[in-house]
Task: structure prediction
Amino acid sequence: MSADCDFGLIGLAVMGENLALNVESRGYKVAVHNRTTSVVDDFIAGRAAGKNFVGCHSIEALVKNLAQPRKVMMLIKAGPAVDAVIETLIPLLEPGDIIIDGGNTYYADTERRTKYVEEKGFLYCGTGVSGGEEGALKGPSMMPGGSAAAWEHVKPIFQAIAAKVGPGGDIPCCEWVGPRGAGHYVKMVHNGIEYGDMQLICEAYFLMKEGLGLSNDELYDVFGEWNKGDLDSYLIEISRDIFSVKDEDGSYVVDKVLDRAGAKGTGKWMSQLALDLGVPSTLVTEAVYARSLSARKADRVRASASLRGPEPTVKGDKKEFIEQVRQALYASKIVSYAQGFVQMQAAAIEHGWPLNYGDCAMLWRGGCIIRAVFLDRIKEAFQKDPELENLLLAQYFQDAIHQAQDGWRHVVASAALTGIPVPAFATALAYYDGYRRASLPANLLQAQRDYFGAHTYERTDKPPGEMFHTDWLRERKVPL
Result:
């Protein structure tokens, strides 16, 4: 058996197949394995026919076909299956060999696995991969982290297969993120922002469909126009395309899609971890809740028969309102990304990850689901100020918010008055208004906590950190 393959891949579902084809197309010889061996045979006889692949019916055979240091990538279901494959690999590897997890893995599992694999004398690389099936084949966004010594070995392959951006189309959307679980954490934030982007787009759609009565043809034109400006992005582009697709009977497919959304959990992870860190990632949380509410379709159908609200019709100039919806979408999108980067900053401090936030933005500039021209502005903001504490403080984004603010507020108010739900638009605006205020009503909240639980409080006229307690019962004005 010839040990001359450059790369090994375990897991030949569509993502695995496409990524393997991408690696091979860049001049590398690839060994592949799947638990169901007939899948390997079908791949070798089909899409891989005549190409530089070696099909392996066992993990042992895959390892024996790999040149050292061996690079073995798993594209399998996250969870116990990953641990099982790691345990199978470890006795077969030699010091310096690299195990790569390209699945949607929870970052803490990657933290644990990196430590475990390194203790065995091997290297571990937890790599977030975004872009879906097409991205895997043509160029994904890749977010590798883990054992730093692994990077020099996987870098040539990863950067060769990754999406490319920049003026010359030669900047790979793949750069080392940081140690242990940093890569999978950044991928999780990417997915959480994706949840937010999708919910914001859906709210814009619903406002124009329900509030203005726009047809799918008109929506196609609106989204097509939006995709030429600040909102130029993959999700706006595919939303435009969706409005053009008709069923066999000539009706639009989008109108027949059941309004019950699914989720795989990464948005929920981001929201839960934001709570643990004490950072207000409110937009992804509302996006997760919106999916949860949509999933209760039967409940909503029953409620619709008895619960009443205003007529969902927006009055006034249609063209002007469409522009205001665009402004609300853009301003809310800025808030969503600002929250995502604040969470990454907090996580980096918590876990000791030296994240480069400008690089993170460029990892998402191509190949992934949230790819957008907008990300260039984020890169520029962090280049100008690497210590930027919130994107809303960068001059470009300040100006953009100020220009969009009146339209944004009008849209949220109009939605409330017409009974059209816009939880993501509204929470984005609430975050902005809360963040820009030097004073919030938490003074009363702290007084309440001290009243019923003696939790103490700080005073505005005393040094920070000095705590006080008031005997509110004794000092209160007794009601007559």
User: Anything to note?
Assistant: The longest strand covers residues 123-130. The radius of gyration is 26 Å. The first helix runs from residue 14 to 25.
